[in-house]
Amino acid sequence: MKKEIYIIGSGFSSLSAACYLAKDGYAVTVLEKNATLGGRARQLTKDGFTFDMGPTWYWMPDVFDRFFADFNKKTSDYYELQKLSPAYNVYFGKDDVVSVADNLPEIRATFESIEAGSGKQLDRFMATAKNNYDIAIGDMVYKPGESFLELVSVKTAVRLKRFLTSIRGDIRKKFNNRKLIQLLEFPVLFLGAKPSNTPSFYSFMNHADFGLGTWYPQKGMYTVVEAIEKLALELGVVFETNAAVDQICCEDGKVSGLLVNGQFRKATLVLSGADYHHTEQILEKKYRAYSDSYWRSRVFAPSSLLFYLGFDKKIANVEHHTLFFDADFEQHAKDIYDLPKWPESPLFYASFPSRTDASCAPQGCEAAILLIPLAPGLKDTQFLRDQYFEKIMHRLEEVTQQSLRNNMIFKESFCVNDFTNDYNSYKGNAYGMANTLFQTAFLRPKLRSRKVRNLYFTGQLTVPGPGVPPALISGKLSAALIRKYSRP
């Protein structure tokens, strides 16, 4: 008879774990509180428009390939990938745009055209970034973070040096031009932490960006959710939506059941891919491994204010991914991590998926997603959402030199309150816990509960960290620990 396991939540980490556990012979049931699967990677459809509500960047394709290969599958069995060319554009002001190519030689030429001598510096920087990536993927991120000893086999001296210096310091030793610095720092700021607090080892994200390129799965990132769901169903996983877990019940330090929509279910093995803090809140206090003060002391990646917009015309002078850095990069970072407060003049990111994929919008129309990174825990009101929409729409029109407001068919927004309500996200964070020096590897919250037997965790607040590829890896790591430690 198969051993049963319940998985809470259906984000990428939960879906990943569900597949690995089903492959290993477990009877897997996934419980999702919302009406559709995907967690933060849900999809919004309206009036013929389709939007990814969460992740829109497909980086580190090798991690996706490795996931499907573990099941003797290929990504192409489930979805079609397109490498974006250019990868993205960055506006530094009106008539001041840098296009980031889909290959390193052209990116090198762009750097050299902006700052003489920076091409050679980029070669050196990217060689280190690739080395860091190889170490990260080969020796680090596929370790479960149970002990410092996991890192002993890695190139310790190299790693130590690259963890004790910041990525900001490393970049600014090599480059002087503000634009180039911001191009290299943006993956860290937008995806998890302040560059000055992030170890230089995390330049591996620059290899993911410039080295491996930016890809698009046809019909959007939700296609990847559907692909893993299909794989899971092929493996026998059962999915239940509109199934909110109200409590994890324990007896004598061991999982005994779940309250699902107020009804008790016997359960002796549970994996939570829901927000880690929230999961501990639905345990009795004596079974929580981390105190309220612990969570308050952590550095969280940003939350976001997002707008999903439908336009009745095509938008000019933008690419699929377009970054607007026509504001003070340093000040916005301070507003997120130091103050924190709503930024006076925010950086923002815009995605126009219908430029690549005609299925995302009716013919002649454009789908747009606008995102402002914010500090988690900020006050979120409709007045503030409207105020910031006007700010960034004014800049979008001014910088791209076109009128858009009168062509907008609809507008939907998503912000701190929605992250909290829809995903039980701590302080409404969007990306999880930042990868700072003291929040890396074994220093992150554990995959295996220290106080409750047969309770496990997965996702972006635990190992290895925020982002879709790390979430897939997190699910694999949790499944491996369950095989190793779970017992009647």
Q: Give the biggest beta sheet.
A: 7 strands, mixed
What percentage of amino acids are in beta strands? 15-25%
Give a count of the beta strands, DSSP E runs of length 2 or more. 19
Query: Spans of 5+ residues with little confidence (pLDDT < 50)?
Result: none
Measured distance between first and last alpha carbons: 13 Å
Q: Helicity level, as a percent range?
A: 25-40%
Nearest-integer average pLDDT: 95
* 3D shape: globular
Strand order of the largest sheet: 7-6-15-16-17-14-18
Number of helices: 15
Radius of gyration, rounded?
A: 22 Å
Task: Give an overview in words.
- α2 (61-69) runs parallel beside α15 and α3 (104-114) packs across α4 (118-140).
- The chain is α/β, with parallel strands linked by helices.
- It has a 7-stranded mixed beta sheet with strand order 7-6-15-16-17-14-18, with helices on both faces.
- The protein contains 15 helices and 19 strands.
- It has helices at residues 12-23, 61-69, 104-114, 118-140, 156-164, 167-174, 178-191, 204-211, 222-234, 276-281, 292-297, 329-337, 382-400, 416-423, 468-485; strands at 4-8, 27-31, 43-46, 49-52, 81-83, 88-93, 96-100, 215-217, 238-240, 245-251, 254-260, 263-266, 270-272, 303-311, 321-324, 348-351, 366-374, 408-414, 455-457.
- The protein is globular, with a radius of gyration of 22 Å.
